[in-house]
Specification:
The structure is a single chain. By secondary structure, this protein is mainly alpha-helical. The chain has a domain of 78 residues. Strands 1-2 form a two-stranded antiparallel sheet. It starts with 14 loop residues before the first helix and ends with a strand. 1% of the residues are buried.
Length: 154
């Protein structure tokens, strides 16, 4: 009895099948390279846009702080501009952002009577507005009893 192992025959794919598989893999690899390139470009554009947005936000923050500083009353100028003559200081002396001023007028300090707005005399001539729209802007205070007290009209 012969105990020599008998080699198992190896089945090889035909060269045509191997070539098809290699071409298929090359096509998929090319597609992956194109997709990777597009993703890299998209990431670069997104990073650029984020950088621009961050710069815009910083600019808006600076402008807002300057506006708040300009609108904050100071002992020298009750109408605003607590930062001095140039109005460019955008933070308080301790470096923290300036908060908007709080209302310092109490209801007791409001005038008890405001001038009354009266109607004008009607126009003598017959005006034709041709079906146009006429608008008015009325400014009013809402009184504690719920009524509107008109103090300005345009």
């Amino acid at each position: 009895m012969d105990l020599t192992p008998i080699p198992t025959p190896v089945t090889l794919s035909s060269p045509v099948n191997l070539e098809k598989r290699i071409n298929n893999l090359e096509t998929k690899l090319g597609s992956l390279e194109t997709t990777m390139s597009q993703l890299t470009q998209g990431l670069s554009q997104t990073n650029s846009q984020l950088s621009q947005l961050a710069q815009g936000q910083a600019s808006l923050q600076t402008t807002l702080q300057a506006f708040i500083q300009a609108m904050t009353p100071s002992p020298n100028n009750p109408n605003g501009s607590a930062s001095g003559s140039n109005g460019n200081d955008s933070s308080s002396s301790n470096g923290s952002p300036v908060s908007p001023p709080s209302s310092k007028i109490s209801p007791q300090e409001l005038p008890l009577s405001l001038p009354e707005i009266t109607t004008l005399n009607p126009a003598d001539q017959n005006l034709n507005f041709g079906g146009g729209i006429c608008t008015a802007d009325l400014e009013a205070l809402i009184l504690p009893d719920g009524t509107n007290y008109v103090y300005m009209a345009a």
